[in-house]
Fold this protein.
Amino acid sequence: MFKKPTTFVIGAGCSREYGFPLGNDLRDQIATLLENVKPERPRRSDRMVFTMEGTDKDVEFNAAIVQHAGQHKWQEWFATAQSMAKGLRQGSSIDRYLDFHNEDPVRVQLGKMAIGRLILRAESQSSLSMETGSIFDMTEVAKKNGGEPHWLNELFLRLQEGVRRSNVEEFLNNVTFICFNYDRVIEHYLFNAIKAFGNLTDEEATAAMQGLKIYHPYGRLGHLFWETATTPKGVQYGARLDDFGSIVGHSEHVRIFTESFEENEEIRCIRHAMENAEKVVFLGFSFLQQNLDLIRPDNRSKASQVWATTYGMSQYDVDAAENAISAMLNGSKSADYRSFRVNVVDSKAGKFMDDVGNLLRS
């Protein structure tokens, strides 16, 4: 377990290690999904037929659009989808696009539905996907990652230190995750890893996971089944949702920046975690200003160590990221400014955790 309060800020680069798209890839996938739909006239008043062009033939997704929009507005929705496909490719990400169009409810809903559809698909195709009742093969995960260390395994090696089966519920002590990804990779991995390592039942693993403190500022695709003891229902990691209601329903868990920035209990918890952490670690993060604003604490952070991976970034962007992190950690209400030393490491999250993980745990 970790000895000091440590907050991990997780970006798309972390999920990339398991086969998920980065922001620009997800943007392009959504644009393709929205542009390759050609509606025909309905055969009956309650049904719609589609001819699909291009490579992304997703009839269920497009039928869900019709059901959600209604028979009198589906043409407007499809026209908007075509417009979005063109505009999206000019933006940095789907998040930036939806934030720009935050007062257009049709665009926002279409974007959320597309995010949900494609992230669930990415879960099912990721190296952490597995058959129900089995466990992912760590050897195969490593192979798919090119033999390189991957960050969740390196993290779990440190979480298990100092923990025995008798106090397994303490393995998540002192760690908090602020995850800007829509997927459930962290929750899925840690549950199955502690279950296999500890030879635990589902019930015992669920109990051990009660110490997980994880916040998704932009939401996620609903609860996993092991999290549903106090919630109505969950959705399996990588599930294929073919019914219209599920496609629409799970998109409701996704939030855009404007919705996330509204003061609520989760935002208060996020900012509290940033303020009270002794160590802050940015992994696979892109340092967009709107995301840094979202996690900015009220008061100056107590962090004595700050780390950030900057794989593939130019020196100009690294310098800008260091300054932006330091400014964010000073908080929104601090009267004076103190510079934070940011330890930047030009590596992927997995290699970083392999190299620095023991220092972070100490």
Observations:
- The two ends are 9 Å apart (CA to CA).
- The chain has 16 helices and eight strands.
